[in-house]
Amino acid sequence: MKPPRVIGHRGACAHAPENTLAAFRLAAEMCGWAELDVDLLADGTVVVCHDRTLERTTTGSGRVEEATWDDVAGLDAGGWFDPRFAGEPLARLSDVIDLANEVGLSINVELKSPLGGAEIARRLVAATAAQLRRLDPGCDVIVSSFNHLMLPLMAAEGEWPLACLFEAGQLGEDWRTRAELAGARILHPCLPDVTAGLVTEMRAAGYRVNVWTVNDPEDARALARMGVDGIITNDPEAIRAAIAQV
Ligand code: G3P
Ligand code: MG
Fold first, then answer.
1. Which domains occur in the chain, in start order?
2. How many Å lie between the centroid of ligand 1 and the Cα of residue 101?
C-alpha cells in the first residue's frame, strides 16, 4: 500500500519556529508539503500566523488584524522557539509562494476565519487567491478552513482543491452534507475522531482524507493501515520514517 502523504504542520514545527520560512524549508526537505495558517493584516497583506495576537510567537504585541506589514516586518518570530532562530521574521504568504517555487514545496493553506465580518473574509480570500496564482504548476495546493463558508468564496476565485477542516469532537454525522455545500472534495478530520470505519466511508464517498495533527508514530502507522491519504504532523521526519513500511 502506498504510504500516506506527510504534511508538515505550520511547516516542520517540531524542528523550527511555526509558520516561518525556516520551518517551511525544513518541511520541504522532510516531506515536500507544508500546512500554513493565513490571516489578513490591516493593510491587506496576507500574513502567515496561527494566533489572533502576536505575543506567543513574536516579539510584538497586539492583534494581528490591527497591524500593518510595516508594523510587524521587523519582529523576531523565531527566538521564542530557540535562540538559534533569533531574528527569523514573520512570513507573508507571498514569501511562502516564492520559497515554494524555489524549492518545489506543495502547500496546504489554512484560511483563518476573520473576526471583522464578511467583507474582510472576501478580502482575505481574494488576496490569498492572488498569491496562489503565482504558484508554479509543479507545486500542489490544498485550501482548507474550519469556517466552511470560506471555501465557496475560494472556489469563485479559481479551481483549487478545497478541504473542510473539523475541530476535535466537531465531526458531526452530517460531514458529507457540509462538504457538499462547501464544494470540498477533501476532509481534514482531527485525529481523536478518526476510525477505520469512518475513513472507509469517507473514501468510498469519493473524498480524500488528511488527518491532523498526528505526532505519535503508532497513531501514524494505524492511520496508514486505515488507508488515509495524508497525515498532518509537527514532525514530518519521524512520521515519514514511521509509515515508510506499513
Ligand atoms: O490544518 C490543520 C491544523 O493546522 C488545524 O488547526 O489550530 O493548528 O491551525 P490549527
Ligand atoms: Mg493550521
1. 5-38+91-243 (3.20.20.190)
2. 23
